[in-house]
Amino acid sequence: MLIAVVVPAEILGIILPLLLGVAFLVLAERKVMAFVQRRKGPDVVGSFGLLQPLADGSKLILKEPISPSSANFSLFRMAPVATFMLSLVARAVVPFDYGMVLSDPNIGLLYLFAISSLGVYGIITAGRSIN
Fold first, then answer.
1. What is the pLDDT of residues 88-113, one digit of tens each?
2. CA distances from 21 to 15, 18, 75, 78 (A)
3. Are 12 and 102 in contact (CB under 8 A)?
4. pTM
5. Which of these, 74, 27, 17, lies nearest to 49 by C-alpha position?
């Protein structure tokens, strides 16, 4: 029972900082681009714009989904999920710190290349679902 709780906590301990880091790197990029283009940046939401990634995420989730009328709906919706999940699964063999790795197979590099190459199938599936 304890192992069933430790593994998801370990996975969340690796994935959540990655996702939060990406969100705040996007915030930093938007601030730099606002400075370069001499316009107001994302300082409207929260103090110093720190809530802007949350506002962007909620806007993305609440947007009306757009799909082509001739598309196979289930395949068209499954393609980005497959690409995203494969990119997260590929990080299972990447060590983040000494002793902090989700799995340590002997063929970690081969596994990383194999899973990374499968991410293309999400793009192909999305394009093929329209025909």
1. 888 777 777 776 666 766 777 888 88
2. 10, 5, 30, 25
3. no
4. 0.57
5. 27
